[in-house]
Amino acid sequence: MKTRRDEIAAGLAEVERRISEACEAAGRARREVTLVAVTKTYPASDVGILTELGVRDVAENRDQEAAPKAAECSGLPLTWHFVGQLQTNKARSVVSYAHVIHSVDRLRLAEALSREAVKAGREVVCLVQVALDDDPARGGVAPAGIPPLADAIAEAPGLVLGGVMAVAPLGADPGPAFARLRELSSALRGDHPGATVISAGMSADLADAIAHGATHVRVGTALLGRRKPFVR
């Protein structure tokens, strides 16, 4: 009978195969792409198994789940990523455990994160979340808003501008959206050469993202199986 470790190991092996094949097809080295395991709705025990299997980057998208899980896993050698929509009143909590926040899409949020990072004596990497469609519920700043927000993050105490993040539009070919994100990333690096991160691609579209320059892919379902609804 398969153990949970067996299931996760098989999922990880398949995801690694897909990433490696996508890198080869794109003429890129495997080391150029970081796998970020999205562990939302999964228990801390799964995070422990992933760590044992060599994963070092994990992500959550809801603070009320992420904070206690990060605390439970505090002894593990992990980089914690926050990838969900973030309200300013959660800034203090998220800054307490997240090393990278992918979803910074407005000045007020950047200012709140900066204040809390300074208070906590931490330095947090922030990515500008870019809207590649017209759905405001999915978050993100319009492309024209990237430069001023990026400048503000780069100048904010306690924050480091890491690059950009986006989610592909629903029901559309992700390729053109990821190509657009790559262009926006290139323009951003003209002003901020160190902002090299392109966080794009999930379980279904990671190959398209890697083909268009993604440096970080956010994978949950393909690694850990279908999620259960999160209950508070």
From TrEMBL:
Domain of life: Bacteria
SUPFAM superfamilies: PLP-binding barrel
Cofactor needs: pyridoxal 5'-phosphate
UniProt KW Nucleotide-binding keyword: no
Keyword annotations from UniProtKB, A to Z: Pyridoxal phosphate
PANTHER family: PROLINE SYNTHETASE CO-TRANSCRIBED BACTERIAL HOMOLOG PROTEIN, PYRIDOXAL PHOSPHATE HOMEOSTASIS PROTEIN
Record-stated family: Belongs to the pyridoxal phosphate-binding protein YggS/PROSC family.
Name of the protein: Pyridoxal phosphate homeostasis protein
Species annotation: Sphaerisporangium album
